[in-house]
Amino acid sequence: MYELLGNLTFISGLIAVTAAQIFKVIFSLIFTGKIDINNALSTGGMPSSHTATVAAITTSVAIIDGLGSTMFAVTLVLSIIVIYDAVGIRRAAGKHAEVLNEWSKILSEVYEHGFKVEDLKTLLGHSYPQVFAGIVLGCATGFLVNYYL
After folding, report:
1. How many CA atoms lie within 13 A of 142 on its CB side?
2. Is residue 138 within 8 Å of 53, Cβ to Cβ?
3. What CA–CA distance (Å, rounded) separates 90 from 129?
4. Which of 41-50, 93-102, 125-134 has the lowest mean pLDDT?
5. Are the C-beta atoms of residues 51 and 126 closer than 8 Å to each other?
6. How far apart are the C-alpha atoms of 128 and 88, rounded to whole Å?
């Protein structure tokens, strides 16, 4: 356990995901005037915590092992997959959930008995600015952890 807690790559990822989740609460407070702790435990929103985490890990590996290392190549490819998923597939799933929620409401009005409305979670993926903010946060975290810890 001590070895893991001394691993700068692990610490970079952990700090990045924590910071991103805290920023979600702060941005929610700024834009809505309310503190919503649920934002710290949810997917979606500004910045992308998935992106921040993989960017921090990839930056840390680049600093420790170098851009030519196998480990950097692996983390970079995995980061691209995670980022693509966050902005592409998960965002599309959120849009599908919005449509299904609307149809669910319509069906519940048409069929008074026997149709139960269940709201699907719609905030699943990220916009490009949210992903960009996650990349900036993650790269900065990876850099700061590796040069100052």
Report:
1. 24
2. yes
3. 15
4. 93-102
5. yes
6. 10
Supply 73's token pair.
């190549």
pLDDT at residue 45, rounded to an integer: 78
pTM of the model: 0.79
b/e for 28-64, b at 16 or more Cβ within 10 A?
beeeeeeeeeebbeebbbbbbbbbbbbbbbbbbbbbb
Closest-CA residue to 57 (of 70, 71, 43): 71
The Cβ of residue 138 has, within 10 Å, a number of other Cβ atoms equal to 32
Amino acid at 56: A
CA distance 122 to 134: 20
**Residue written as tokens 């008074």?**
112
DSSP secondary structure, 53-110, as one string = HHHHHHHHHHHHH-TTSHHHHHHHHHHHHHHHIIIIIHHHHHHHHHHHHHHHHHHHHH
CA 9 to CA 55: how far, in whole Å? 11
pLDDT tens, residue by residue, 63-106: 999 999 999 999 999 999 999 888 776 566 666 666 666 766 66
